[in-house]
Design goal:
This protein has a six-stranded mixed beta sheet with strand order 1-4-3-2-5-6, with helices on one face. Helix content is 42%, strand content 18%. It has a single domain (2-169), classed as Glutaredoxin. By secondary structure, it is α/β, with parallel strands linked by helices. Helix 4 (102-111) links the parallel strand 3 (86-92) and strand 4 (117-120). The N and C termini lie far apart (57 Å). It has helices at 2-23, 47-50, 65-81, 102-111, 125-130, 157-169, and strands spanning 39-40, 54-60, 86-92, 117-120, 137-141, 147-152. The protein contains six helices and six strands. The longest helix has 22 residues, at 2-23.
Length: 172
């Protein structure tokens, strides 16, 4: 009986640790460059052009219901914090073949009034550079280009916004 309890407790601790590691993937590392060739709502954004800005990189795809649930918050942060220096970059990484069609992405952006920069990541090059594995996933990058916070999935909106405000308040 003690062996079963010990095994169960160890399993729970391992699951909690794995969840923490996943949620903190990349924190403290320099953010990789986003080098996709197709950008919507913006000219291509480089690390040089983003220097001194706080950047929210959101991995999403228009067919993902979880991504759609996060969308109003990301749009609100863009609207509220772009003036003080937040740059939102949506990295559209398709889950299904119809999500690879550029015209469908354009139509979605227009229909949903998405005005922040979106880059098309059909080859998953940016996804892989970030080591991402989830839709949606958000990476907050500080003014020096370091990943400071990662949010995977829905929820945590108040915490994410608190991080945005904190990073905007830091010196460049």
């Amino acid at each position: 009986m003690l062996c079963k309890v010990t095994t169960a407790v160890m399993g729970i601790l391992l699951a909690l640790f794995a969840g923490w590691v996943i949620a903190n993937a990349g924190v403290g590392m320099s953010a990789p460059a986003i080098t996709n060739s197709v950008w919507l709502n913006s000219e291509p954004l480089s690390q040089v052009s983003l220097k001194g800005k706080v950047v929210l990189v959101e991995f999403w795809t228009f067919g993902c219901s979880n991504c759609r649930n996060v969308e109003p918050h990301v749009k609100s942060w863009h609207d509220q914090y772009a003036g003080p220096g937040l740059v939102v970059i949506g990295v559209h990484s398709p889950e299904f073949s119809h999500e690879r069609e550029l015209e469908r992405v354009r139509e979605y952006l227009k229909a949903h009034d998405i005005r922040f920069a979106v880059t098309i990541d059909n080859d998953f090059s940016t996804w892989n550079k970030f080591g991402n594995r989830y839709w949606p996933a958000m990476y907050l990058i500080d003014k020096k280009g370091v990943i400071r916070y990662v949010r995977i999935g829905e929820g945590g909106y108040a915490e994410t916004e608190r991080w945005i405000r904190e990073l905007l308040g830091e010196p460049a």
